[in-house]
C-alpha cells in the first residue's frame, strides 16, 4: 500500500541520484581552486562538497547528484572547473 | 562560507539542470532555517521537490493547491499561535503565476491580515510547469506558448505586473526583491523578512533555462544581467521607505540581457524589432529613474 | 435519562454554542447568507473571551477552507461554515482537505445555487460536492444539528476515519428558526470528545512533507485509502452515535432512521428538515389507515446502502423526495438509492419527487400528494413518470 495521505520523509529525494542525467561532468583543478565557494553558493542541486586537499580548502562536485548544468564552471572566478563530456557506459 | 552551510532543500529534486528556481528555494531555505514550516503552491517547485514517496524538504512542508499558498500559511500561523508556539516561522512559497495571478486574492488577504508569514514568490516569469504559458509576471514582448510572436504580435503584449508594489500597498512592514545572482543579498532579505513579526513579501527573480531559452550554465549570468540592465531592480522597502537599492555603476543596455534568450529572439529578427527594443529600454530607464539606479 | 436544560434559540446560535464547546483552535470564515449567524455568534464568543480560538476573518470561502487545511495540518481542531456559492468556491479545497486526510468540521447552511440567484433552501450545494471525500450528515432539527456538530469531530478525528465532515442544516428553515434545544456543556463535550492529537502534523520536531505528487503508480491506492476510511466510517458513526446517546441522553441510532416502516406498503425517503413535515404526514395517513412509513437519511456520505435496503424490504413502492436535481438526470438521493437497489434482492417500484427547490415550501398537502402518487405506483405496478417536479406551476 502507500503512506497515509502521501506523507513523505524529509530530504528523501536524496534517495534518487540525479547524477545519471548528466552529459557533461565538472572537473575541478584543485591547484587553481581558491576555495571561494562560489560554485557551492550557485549550485541549484546543493551538491558541492568542501574538502581539504594538501592542507588547502577546495570544493568538489558530488557526482551522485550533479546534473552537469555547468553553472559552477561558468561562475568560477578563476576558471578552475572544466566541463568534460561524460563517457558512454 | 558566508551562507548557512546546512541544506534544507536537498539534492535529488527533479528540476531541470541549471534551474534558477531550485537555487532560489535552496537559498531561501538557508535563510529560513530548521524551526520553520513551509507551504508551496502547485507548480514547478512543488512537482520537482515532492515526487511521492520522496521530498526534498528538510523542514515540515505542505503543498495544497495552486492558489492558496498564502491562505494555507495564514492557517498554519493561526494553528501555531493556538498551540502557543511563538517561535516557528512560516514561509509561504509560490511561483509567479500562483502568486500574482491565481493566488493574488489569498496573498492579499494574508498580507492585509498581517499574518506572521514570509511570502516568497519565485518569479520565473511564466507558467513553466504547464509548458511556458504567459503569466501576469511575464515581461513585455516575451515569447511564451500563449504569447507567441507572429505577423500580428511581438510576443507578450502587457507589461510585467508589479507585485512588489501591490504587496507594499497593503502597508506590510517589509517587501523586497532579490535575485539568485546575488545569494548573500537574497539570504539577508529572506532572513530580515523572517525576523519581522508580521506579513512580509520577497520576490526572487529565478531565470528558467527551459522557458527562457538559454543554456542551463547561463542561469546566473542571465539573472545578473537582468539586474545590471535595470530590468530587475534589487531593493527593499521597510515601513514604506525604499532602502538598500543595488545601485549600478554602468547600467548595461537591455539588449545584452535580451539577446541571450530565445524568448526575445524575435525582437532581433523582426524588421521593426528595434522599436520594441526601445520600448523595453524605456522600461529599464523608468526603473532607473524611479529607483535612482544609476550611480 | 439525564436532566435536560433546554433553551430557546435560533439554529445558527445553537450550533455556534455546540461548536464553542468543542473548543476549536482555529476558525476561519467568510460571510454568506444564510450561514452568517453561526460565524457571527462565534465571533462574539471570541470577542467576549468565552472562546479561545484563533479566528481568521478571511477574504473568501476559498481561503476559509484553505486556512482550515493549514491549521488542521498543524494538528489543531478547526471549524468553518458556509452555504451555496461559498461552498462551490471552496470546492477545490474540499477535495484537498479530504485527500490530505484532515478532520475539518464544517456546517453547511444549505441554500440553492444560482442562477437565478436565490438565498433560500435546497440541497443543490452540498449534493454538488458529494464526491469530494467529505462525510455528510443531514440534520432534521436544530437539536440534531448541534448534536451532529459535536459528533462530527469525534467521527472525523477517529484514527480509522480521519476525513473531514460536513454537517448540513437547511438554510433559514433551521438556521433562522427558534427552537428549544439542549446544549451539552463544555465539560460534557470534553468528556465525550478527547483532545485532537494526530500522529501526523506539520512539526519542526518531526519535519514531514504533506501533499506530495501522486503518480499513476500510487494514486489509486490513495483514493482506495479514502474510500476505505469512508467504509470504516459506516462502523464508527453508529458507535459515536451510541456513545453520544448514552452520555447526552438523546437517541441517535444509526446512519438512517426508520419511522413506522415495519408493515409499510409505501415508504417515503428523504433527508433534512423536511423529515418533520413527512413525519406529520405519515402520522396523519396512518390515522387514516394507510400503510405508510418514512426513512430519514441521516448520513449521506458514506452512503447507507445496506441500511436502506434492509429498511425498504417489504415495501411495494418507494418515493424519494430530493431537494436537488442533477439536471438531465435525477435527484441525488434517488439516484444513489437506485444504485444500491440494483444488486440487491429487492425490487420495489421507485419514484423521485423533486421538491422545495430554491426555498419553495413543502406543505403537508404536497407531502400527501407525493404519498398518493407513490401509492398509485404501487397499485398500478409500474412507474409512468419517474421524475416528478412537485407543485410545479402550470404554464
TrEMBL record, chain A:
InterPro entries from the UniProt entry:
4Fe4S_Fe-S-bd, 4Fe4S_Fe_S_CS, PorD_KorD
Q: Which domain of life is it from?
A: Archaea
Q: What's a Gene Ontology MF term here?
A: oxidoreductase activity, acting on the aldehyde or oxo group of donors, iron-sulfur protein as acceptor
The answer to whether keyword Transcription applies is no
Q: Keywords, A to Z? A: 4Fe-4S, Electron transport, Iron, Iron-sulfur, Metal-binding, Pyruvate, Repeat, Transport
Cofactor(s) recorded for this entry are:
[4Fe-4S] cluster
Provide the 4Fe-4S ferredoxin-type domain boundaries: 24-54, 57-86
Q: Name one Pfam family in it.
A: Fer4_21
PROSITE patterns xrefs:
4FE4S_FER_1, 4FE4S_FER_2
Q: Does the keyword Repeat apply?
A: yes
Q: How does it assemble?
A: Heterotetramer of one alpha, one beta, one delta and one gamma chain.
Q: What is this protein called?
A: Pyruvate:ferredoxin oxidoreductase delta subunit PorD
Source species of the chain: Methanohalarchaeum thermophilum
Question: Which lineage?
Answer: Archaea, Methanobacteriati, Methanobacteriota, Methanonatronarchaeia, Methanonatronarchaeales
TrEMBL record, chain B:
The record's region (Disordered) falls at 133-157
Q: Which residues form a coiled coil?
A: none
Q: What is this protein called?
A: Pyruvate:ferredoxin oxidoreductase beta subunit PorB
**SUPFAM superfamilies in alphabetical order:** Thiamin diphosphate-binding fold (THDP-binding)
What sequence ranges are listed for the domain Thiamine pyrophosphate enzyme TPP-binding?
42-204
Q: Where is the composition biased (Polar residues)?
A: 133-156
A GO MF term: oxidoreductase activity
Q: How does it assemble?
A: Heterotetramer of one alpha, one beta, one delta and one gamma chain.
Please provide an example of a Pfam family that matches this protein in its UniProt record.
Answer: TPP_enzyme_C
Alphabetical GO biological process terms: organic acid metabolic process; sulfur compound biosynthetic process
**What UniProt keywords apply to this chain's record, in alphabetical order?**
Oxidoreductase, Pyruvate
TrEMBL record, chain C:
**EC number annotated for this UniProt entry:** 1.2.7.1
Q: Which InterPro entries match?
A: PFOR_II, Pyruvate:ferred/Flavod_OxRd, Pyruvate_synthase_PorA, Pyrv_Fd/Flavodoxin_OxRdtase_N, THDP-binding, Transketo_C/PFOR_II
Keyword Oxidoreductase part of the UniProt annotation: yes
| Cell wall biogenesis/degradation recorded as keyword | no
- What highest taxon heads this organism's lineage? Archaea
> Boundaries of each Pyruvate flavodoxin/ferredoxin oxidoreductase pyrimidine binding domain copy?
17-241
Keywords (A to Z) from UniProt: Oxidoreductase, Pyruvate
Give one GO molecular function term.
pyruvate synthase activity
UniProt-listed SUPFAM superfamilies = Thiamin diphosphate-binding fold (THDP-binding), TK C-terminal domain-like
Q: What's its catalytic activity?
A: 2 oxidized [2Fe-2S]-[ferredoxin] + pyruvate + CoA = 2 reduced [2Fe-2S]-[ferredoxin] + acetyl-CoA + CO2 + H(+)
Q: One of this protein's GO BP terms?
A: response to oxidative stress
Q: Which residues form the Pyruvate:ferredoxin oxidoreductase core domain?
A: 264-362
Which NCBIfam families does the entry mention?
Answer: PorA_Arch
The record describes its quaternary structure and partners as: Heterotetramer of one alpha, one beta, one delta and one gamma chain.
**Name of the protein this chain belongs to:** Pyruvate synthase subunit PorA
Q: Which organism is it from?
A: Methanohalarchaeum thermophilum
Amino acid at each position: 500500500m502507500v503512506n497515509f495521505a502521501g506523507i513523505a520523509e524529509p530530504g528523501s529525494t536524496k534517495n534518487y541520484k540525479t547524477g545519471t542525467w548528466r552529459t557533461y561532468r565538472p572537473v575541478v583543478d584543485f591547484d587553481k581552486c581558491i576555495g571561494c565557494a562560489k560554485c557551492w553558493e550557485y549550485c541549484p542541486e546543493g551538491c558541492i562538497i568542501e574538502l581539504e586537499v594538501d592542507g588547502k580548502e577546495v570544493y568538489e562536485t558530488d557526482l551522485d547528484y550533479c546534473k552537469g548544468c555547468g553553472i559552477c564552471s561558468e561562475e568560477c572566478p578563476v576558471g578552475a572547473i572544466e566541463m568534460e563530456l561524460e563517457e558512454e557506459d | 562560507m558566508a551562507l548557512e552551510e546546512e541544506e534544507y532543500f536537498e539534492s535529488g529534486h527533479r528540476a531541470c539542470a541549471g534551474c534558477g528556481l531550485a537555487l532560489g528555494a535552496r537559498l531561501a531555505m538557508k535563510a529560513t532555517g530548521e524551526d520553520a514550516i513551509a507551504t508551496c503552491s502547485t507548480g514547478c517547485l512543488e512537482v520537482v521537490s515532492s515526487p511521492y514517496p520522496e521530498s526534498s524538504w528538510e523542514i515540515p512542508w505542505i503543498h495544497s493547491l495552486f492558489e492558496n499558498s498564502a491562505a494555507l500559511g495564514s492557517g498554519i500561523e493561526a494553528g501555531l499561535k493556538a498551540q502557543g508556539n511563538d517561535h516557528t516561522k512560516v514561509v509561504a512559497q509560490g511561483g509567479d503565476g500562483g502568486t500574482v495571478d491565481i493566488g493574488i486574492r489569498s496573498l492579499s488577504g494574508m498580507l492585509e491580515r498581517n499574518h506572521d508569514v514570509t511570502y516568497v514568490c519565485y518569479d520565473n516569469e511564466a507558467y513553466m510547469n504547464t509548458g511556458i504559458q504567459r503569466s501576469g509576471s511575464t515581461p513585455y514582448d516575451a515569447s511564451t506558448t500563449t504569447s507567441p510572436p507572429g505577423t500580428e504580435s511581438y510576443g507578450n503584449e502587457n507589461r510585467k505586473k508589479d507585485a512588489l508594489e501591490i504587496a507594499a500597498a497593503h502597508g506590510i512592514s517589509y517587501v523586497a526583491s532579490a535575485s539568485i545572482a546575488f545569494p548573500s543579498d537574497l539570504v539577508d532579505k529572506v532572513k530580515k523578512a523572517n525576523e519581522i513579526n508580521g506579513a512580509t513579501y520577497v520576490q526572487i527573480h529565478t531565470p528558467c533555462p527551459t522557458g527562457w531559452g538559454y543554456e542551463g550554465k547561463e542561469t546566473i549570468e542571465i539573472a545578473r544581467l537582468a539586474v545590471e540592465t535595470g530590468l530587475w531592480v534589487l531593493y527593499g522597502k521597510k515601513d514604506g521607505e525604499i532602502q538598500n537599492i543595488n545601485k549600478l555603476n554602468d547600467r548595461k543596455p537591455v539588449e545584452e540581457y535580451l539577446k541571450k534568450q530565445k524568448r526575445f529572439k524575435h525582437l532581433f529578427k523582426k524588421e521593426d524589432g528595434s522599436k520594441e527594443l526601445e520600448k523595453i529600454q524605456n522600461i529599464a530607464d523608468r526603473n532607473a529613474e524611479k529607483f535612482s539606479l544609476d550611480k | 435519562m439525564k436532566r435536560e436544560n433546554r433553551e430557546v434559540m435560533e439554529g445558527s446560535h445553537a450550533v455556534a454554542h455546540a461548536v464553542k464547546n468543542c473548543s476549536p483552535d482555529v476558525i476561519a470564515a467568510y460571510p454568506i447568507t444564510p450561514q452568517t449567524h453561526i460565524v457571527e455568534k462565534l465571533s462574539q464568543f471570541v470577542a467576549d473571551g468565552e472562546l479561545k480560538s484563533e479566528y481568521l476573518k478571511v477574504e473568501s470561502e476559498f481561503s476559509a477552507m484553505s486556512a482550515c487545511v493549514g491549521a488542521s495540518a498543524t494538528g489543531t481542531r478547526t471549524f468553518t461554515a458556509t452555504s451555496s456559492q461559498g461552498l462551490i468556491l471552496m470546492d477545490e479545497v474540499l477535495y484537498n482537505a479530504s485527500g490530505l486526510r484532515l478532520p475539518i468540521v464544517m456546517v453547511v447552511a444549505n441554500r440553492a445555487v444560482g442562477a437565478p440567484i436565490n438565498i433560500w433552501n435546497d440541497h443543490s450545494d452540498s449534493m454538488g460536492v458529494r464526491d469530494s471525500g467529505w462525510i455528510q450528515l443531514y440534520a432534521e432539527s436544530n437539536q440534531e444539528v448541534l448534536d451532529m456538530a459535536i459528533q462530527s469531530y469525534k467521527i472525523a478525528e477517529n484514527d480509522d476515519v480521519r476525513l473531514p465532515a460536513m454537517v448540513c442544516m437547511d438554510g433559514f428553515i433551521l438556521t433562522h428558526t427558534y427552537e428549544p434545544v439542549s446544549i451539552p456543556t463544555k465539560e460534557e463535550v470534553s468528556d465525550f470528545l478527547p483532545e485532537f492529537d494526530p500522529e501526523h502534523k506539520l512539526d519542526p520536531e518531526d519535519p514531514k512533507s504533506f501533499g506530495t505528487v501522486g503518480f499513476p503508480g500510487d494514486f489509486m491506492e490513495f483514493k482506495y485509502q479514502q474510500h476505505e476510511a469512508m467504509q470504516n466510517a459506516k462502523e464508527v458513526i453508529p458507535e459515536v452515535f451510541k456513545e453520544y446517546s448514552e452520555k447526552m441522553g438523546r437517541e441517535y441510532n444509526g446512519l438512517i432512521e426508520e419511522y413506522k416502516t415495519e408493515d409499510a406498503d409505501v415508504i417515503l425517503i428523504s433527508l433534512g428538515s423536511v423529515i418533520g413535515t413527512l413525519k406529520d404526514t405519515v402520522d396523519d395517513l396512518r390515522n387514516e389507515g394507510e400503510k405508510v412509513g418514512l426513512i430519514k437519511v441521516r448520513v449521506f456520505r458514506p452512503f447507507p446502502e445496506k441500511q436502506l435496503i434492509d429498511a425498504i424490504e417489504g415495501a411495494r413502492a418507494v418515493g424519494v423526495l430530493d431537494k436537488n436535481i442533477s439536471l438531465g438526470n435525477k435527484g441525488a438521493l434517488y439516484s444513489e438509492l437506485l444504485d444500491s437497489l440494483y444488486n440487491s434482492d429487492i425490487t420495489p417500484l421507485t419514484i423521485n419527487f423533486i421538491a422545495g427547490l430554491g426555498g419553495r415550501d413543502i406543505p403537508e398537502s404536497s407531502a400527501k400528494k407525493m404519498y398518493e402518487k407513490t401509492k398509485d405506483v404501487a397499485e398500478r405496478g409500474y412507474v409512468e413518470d419517474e421524475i416528478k417536479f412537485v407543485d410545479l406551476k402550470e404554464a
